Each structure stands twice: as structure tokens, then as C-alpha cells.
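Severity: low
Component: inverse-folding endpoint
Summary: output formatting inconsistent between runs
Steps to reproduce: submit the following C-alpha cells with default settings.
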């Protein structure tokens, strides 16, 4: 359930009945302090100002038109015209009960949009590096949240699988095949790309062949096409392996690379020119945008077709936006890529809108993220200054988690240990990224992310197992609890309210593309559970209270597990 949504709707209706416009916003928020109630409506003052009436008087009028019977215990007008909302304990208890009995923790499937999520998007014949890590795991967290809320999600792995570099790559693949290179040599994509480039730069005959292959590939030559396909395949098999290790939901079927849009580009550029948006400039076709200024303060030119006829990254993104609206029939399209691509995305989409390819109602969203930094505050690199390969990073995570778990719990069986190590290692890497506001750079720090204290994966995973062990130690089956949830103690009530705010945090993740909001929620939930557990004995309590507290504990465990699952982080029953 989404308490904020329920209250917003009811108060909005009361505001309209009290004279406000149809599009008025109640601005209901969770209160920061208990004395201001559980929620506050902050929209009264703004609405009153528009109506030209006294805010406190308007607030009273809203209350006169508001029926929250059974939901609230008390409503108060506070300060210049806020409404403080105190929820009914009985209502909270009933809803907690419902959440416990529902498969999806009481979530209402209210959002059923079609949403394209463009994420991960590595480049062919290049190994995925840590830069793609952020896109992959943040994007996947948002995808899971969107699906959980009932949206139809289309994953679009916008793989960099097209461009002039393919001539050189095909020529080099051919050379290797002729020399009977082993699979092994091909598995090191980074080395493959480097060697191809070296040949291209130093061997004139090779370079000539490479240029020839580019032209052939673009004109649909079968041999070049097959060779190109091989390169895509080799790369994606390796990437798929990374996705699996990372517990990321992308599959081979989600690849919608740049090449998909290539056949659409000539018509788009011709249309941009026909509309007078693209103009010729020194042989190239350029769209001048008033909204962006170059360093001389003049409208910035965005090239959509080069002098030699080649298209650009921007042209492809114009086509992708159009395709996602027109063909995929999406309501929203989200792109997860690095902040350095922000201007590029905004320009591509501005051109898309100017050309009338998508309506205003179609939402194009760049969910940008900052860089991953080393402890020295500089871009994350290997000790020798190279880019860190994702696979190596994950290997190191497993190694470190192995040591940690061996110290922490030497009594696990080999099988249990393996599951815990995997969950903690991958979870730690993912959670340390997901828990930070994506727009800022963040420092990658092994010690922090593997700590059992603070807002980390091991802490959250451990919090989950501790609750589960209450049940296993006492031999109680959490699906066979009886009686009603009772919220007599303050700590019980606080916990129930927090549990019922789960959907609000998931909704924010889906709307804003910010998984850290869910991490923060889960971290706070774990903290609130701890203080409940300290203050309210469970197993020694009188039977009806014991059952009620066990129910709250069980719902907490379910919520933690479900929340971590939405972040793509595994839980274990014992660690
Ligand atoms: N392949 C790009 C890169 O590695 C990211 C693509 C992001 N998506 C997009 N539609 N431009 O930087």
C-alpha cells in the first residue's frame, strides 16, 4: 500500500471541494518529527494563496470536506496552515496484517506503463569495465522496481555494435582466423582491440583492407556481416557471463544495439533536412540549437551526418528515441549513462522533439551517474593505471569475502559458505554503488563495503538472517502465526508504520531512478527493527503479544528480503 498516495488523493479531493483548482497538489510528505504526526500536507498554503484566502481558514475548510474515517486518529492544523496527520493504530495494524498475507507485501499494481530502460550498454570487442558497472546495476535495480509495481518494462541494452572501428576489427579477426588463433586469444577482448588498432596504425595494407571492410559492411556485404556478427557474439557471451555473476536480469534477447537503428538513419537525416532543422555546413549536416551555446555564445551545432556520409552517436540516439515511442509504444524511455553524456542526450532529445518525432507526453529521461573513484579520489584504475576489468573486480570481491566469512563464521559447511561468500561479495560491490545518490562520484572502498556495520550489504544481509534465526532457533514456522497484530507499544507502532512505507520508497525508485532511496529505507527499517527488538521481548511475551510481535518480525524479514531482491542483492538464511 502507498499511504502517501491514499492521503494525497483524499486531501486533494477535499481541497477541490473547498474551492481549489482541479490540478491542485496536496503535497503530502512523511513527517520528520513525531509531534507533527505521521504525515503532513504542505500544499494548503500554496492553494490558499492562489485563491486569495487565509491559509488557516482554508485548511479548516479542507478538513470540513475531508473524510479520513478509519484511517486517521487525529488531524491538526499547524503553523501557517499545514495539516498534520496522525494515523490510526488499528488501521496500521490491519494493513500490516494484509501486507503479511499478501504475495507482494500489499503492493498495489497501480502503475502500468510501458517503460524502455536503456542500461548497461557496453561496447563490442571491448571488455566491460567498471564504468559499465554503474549503468548495469543501477539500471537493473530500477528495472526490478518498475516491474514489481506492475509496469511493462522493455530492457534495451544499447550495445555499441556499429561504427568505423568494425573495419579494423573484422580485418583483424580474419587475420587471426587465418593464423588459427585459439578461442583463448579471443577471450581477451581488450588485447584483441589493442592489437587490431596497432595493426591499423602501423600496417598500411591492413589499414586499406580495414577501410574497405567498413564500406562493405555498411553496404550489407555478407562476408563482412558474418564476421561482424561473430564479434558481437563473442563479446555478448562474455558480457552475459558478467550479468549472471552480478545477478542482473539482462539476457541475450535484450540487446538492442546501435546497429538496430542504422537502417533508419538516412531517412531521419533527410527528414531533418527537409524540415529545415539540419543544414549543410562544410559538407556535413548540422542542426543548430539556440538552447545550447558554443564558446563564442552562438547556437551550438550538432552534427547529424559527417562529410563522408557517416552518421553519429547523436543521430542514433534520435532514431532510438523515435523508435521507442513509435514502434515500442513506450510511455517513458530511461537511459542510464555517465554524466559526461548528459549534454549529448539532451541535444539528441531536443532535436527529436523539434522534429516532432515524439509528443510532449512521452517522457525521455537521462538518469546520469558520476564516476567511480579510487581511495585517492582519482578515477578508479588498476595499480598500473589501466582500466579495471569488471571480471577482475568481482574475483577480488569473492577473495575478500572468503576471508571475511571464514573469520566471522568458521562453522558453516562448505556449501553454506560458498553461498554466503557469493551473496556477500557481489552484494557488497552492488550495494556500495546502489546506496549512493547516483549523481555524485563515489569512492570505491573495499573495507567500507565489506563492513558489517553501517549501510552496507553485509549489514543488511546479516540483519535479515538474525530475524530469520529468531524463528529457526525457536522452531516456529512464520507462516503459521495466529491472532492479530497489536500495536500497543510505541516501538511496535513505529515499526508497523515503517513497514507500510515500503511501497512509497519503491515508487520513488521507479519514478526517479534512484535505488539509493530504497537502500536508505531498508537501512532505516533494520535500525527500527533493532530498537523494537531491544524494547519489546518476543519469545517471553504473553502468547497473543508474542504472536503479534512474531508477525511484525516476519513482515520485517520479508520486506528486507524483497527490498534487497529489488536491488538485485541475494539474502541467505544463515551467515
Ligand atoms: N555504449 C555507450 C558507452 O559505452 C553507452 C550507451 C548509452 N545509451 C544511449 N542510448 N546512448 O558509453
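Observed output (run 2 of 3):
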Amino acid at each position: 500500500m502507498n499511504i502517501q498516495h491514499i492521503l494525497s488523493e483524499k486531501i486533494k479531493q477535499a481541497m477541490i471541494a473547498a474551492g481549489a483548482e482541479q490540478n491542485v497538489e496536496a503535497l503530502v510528505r512523511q513527517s520528520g518529527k513525531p509531534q507533527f504526526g505521521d504525515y503532513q500536507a504542505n500544499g494548503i498554503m500554496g492553494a490558499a494563496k492562489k485563491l486569495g484566502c487565509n491559509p488557516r481558514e482554508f485548511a479548516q475548510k479542507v478538513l470540513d470536506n475531508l473524510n479520513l474515517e478509519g484511517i486517521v486518529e487525529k488531524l491538526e492544523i499547524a503553523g501557517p496552515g499545514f495539516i498534520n496527520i496522525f494515523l490510526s493504530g488499528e488501521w496500521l495494524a490491519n494493513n500490516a496484517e494484509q501486507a503479511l498475507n499478501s504475495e507482494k507485501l500489499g503492493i498495489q499494481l497501480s502503475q502500468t506503463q510501458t517503460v524502455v530502460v536503456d542500461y548497461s550498454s557496453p561496447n563490442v570487442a571491448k571488455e566491460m569495465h567498471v564504468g559499465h558497472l554503474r549503468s548495469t546495476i543501477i539500471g537493473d535495480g530500477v528495472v526490478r522496481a518498475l516491474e514489481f509495481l506492475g509496469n511493462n518494462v522493455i530492457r534495451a541494452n544499447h550495445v555499441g555494435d556499429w561504427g568505423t572501428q568494425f573495419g579494423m576489427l573484422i580485418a583483424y579477426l580474419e587475420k587471426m582466423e587465418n593464423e588459427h588463433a585459439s578461442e583463448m586469444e579471443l577471450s581477451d577482448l581488450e588485447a584483441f582491440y589493442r592489437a587490431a588498432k596497432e595493426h591499423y596504425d602501423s600496417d598500411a595494407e591492413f589499414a586499406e583492407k580495414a577501410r574497405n571492410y567498413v564500406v562493405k559492411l555498411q553496404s550489407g556485404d555478407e562476408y563482412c556481416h558474418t564476421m561482424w556478427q561473430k564479434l558481437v557474439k563473442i563479446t555478448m557471451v562474455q558480457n552475459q557471463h558478467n550479468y549472471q555473476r552480478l545477478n542482473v536480469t539482462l539476457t541475450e534477447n535484450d540487446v538492442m544495439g546501435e546497429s538496430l537503428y542504422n537502417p533508419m538513419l538516412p531517412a531521419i537525416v533527410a527528414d531533418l533536412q527537409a524540415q529545415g532543422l539540419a543544414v549543410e555546413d562544410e559538407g556535413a549536416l548540422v542542426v543548430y540549437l539556440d538552447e545550447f551555446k558554443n564558446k563564442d555564445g552562438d547556437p551550438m551545432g550538432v552534427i547529424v551526418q559527417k562529410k563522408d556520409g557517416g552518421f553519429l552517436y547523436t543521430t542514433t540516439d534520435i532514431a532510438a528515441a523515435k523508435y521507442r515511442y513509435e514502434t515500442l509504444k513506450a510511455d517513458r524511455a530511461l537511459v542510464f549513462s555517465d554524466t559526461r553524456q548528459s549534454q549529448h542526450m539532451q541535444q539528441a532529445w531536443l532535436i527529436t522533439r523539434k522534429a516532432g518525432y515524439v509528443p510532449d507526453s512521452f517522457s525521455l529521461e537521462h538518469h546520469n551517474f558520476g564516476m567511480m573513484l579510487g581511495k585517492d579520489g582519482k578515477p578508479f584504475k588498476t595499480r598500473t593505471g589501466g582500466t579495471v576489468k569488471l571480471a577482475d573486480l568481482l574475483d577480488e570481491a569473492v577473495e575478500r569475502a572468503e576471508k571475511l566469512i571464514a573469520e566471522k563464521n568458521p562453522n558453516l559447511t562448505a556449501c553454506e559458505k560458498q553461498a554466503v561468500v557469493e551473496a556477500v561479495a557481489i552484494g557488497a560491490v552492488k550495494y556500495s554503488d546502489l546506496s549512493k545518490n547516483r549523481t555524485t562520484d563515489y569512492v570505491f572502498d573495499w573495507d567500507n563495503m565489506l563492513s558489517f556495520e553501517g549501510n552496507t550489504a553485509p549489514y543488511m544481509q546479516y540483519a535479515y538472517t538474525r530475524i530469520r534465526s529468531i524463528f529457526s532457533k525457536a522452531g516456529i514456522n512464520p507462516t503459521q502465526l495466529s491472532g492479530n497484530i497489536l500495536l500497543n507499544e510505541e516501538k511496535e507502532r513505529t515499526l508497523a508504520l515503517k513497514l507500510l512505507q515500503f511501497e512509497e520508497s519503491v515508487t520513488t525508485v521507479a519514478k526517479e531512478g534512484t535505488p539509493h532511496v530504497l537502500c536508505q529505507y531498508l537501512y532505516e527499517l533494520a535500525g527500527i527493527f533493532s530498537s523494537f527488538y531491544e524494547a519489546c521481548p518476543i519469545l517471553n511475551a504473553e502468547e497473543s503479544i508474542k504472536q503479534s510481535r512474531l508477525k511484525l518480525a516476519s513482515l520485517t524479514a520479508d520486506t528486507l528480503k524483497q527490498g534487497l531482491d529489488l536491488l538485485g542483492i541475494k539474502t541467505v538464511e544463515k551467515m
